[in-house]
Queue: 3 jobs
Job 1
Amino acid sequence: MDRPILNKDLDSNEFRDYYYLKEELIKFCKDNNLQTTGSKIEPVVCKLLSLQNLINSSFR
């Protein structure tokens, strides 16, 4: 199975099911104006996706 593309539309649960390289996480953070330093990049991306999913579901 192919890994989904890392973007803001990715479900946070699906994000947790796959491994993303640190370089991919940093690019995602830069593209979305998020902090890119430190060792906590993955939790930041996961939190962003969770919030994005919550926002998207409230406007459906």
Note: The radius of gyration is 11 Å.
Job 2
Amino acid sequence: MKKLVLAAAFTAAASAGFAGTLEDPIVEPVVIVEDTAASSSSAGIWVPLLLIAVVAAVVAAD
């Protein structure tokens, strides 16, 4: 019975010893593709133009 327990202990220790390695895993980098095409609406220009129009209206009102 002692030999059976001893054999089971050695088997468990050996399987746990070979379960993994100490090397770092190789991980592929994630590539993120971003669409940089300009949209058809030129909303980026409307905000500054609207701000200039409001400032001009305030200055003209005074």
Note: The mean pLDDT is 78.
Job 3
Amino acid sequence: MSDDSDRTMMRRPALEDTGAEPMLHMLVIEAPGEAPRRLPLRQATLRLGRVADNDIVLPSV
């Protein structure tokens, strides 16, 4: 079981709620000495953190 203190919830409004055209949002993760990681944000809700069961897993620094 994971501890929720090591995750961040990210939400975006549903397209039906905004009337907007679909747009691909990207999360760019930059770390010293590594190429930037570009991750498409396709889900309405993502879990971000260092625990392996998150949707986007960040490396420990």
Note: The chain has one domain: 4-57.
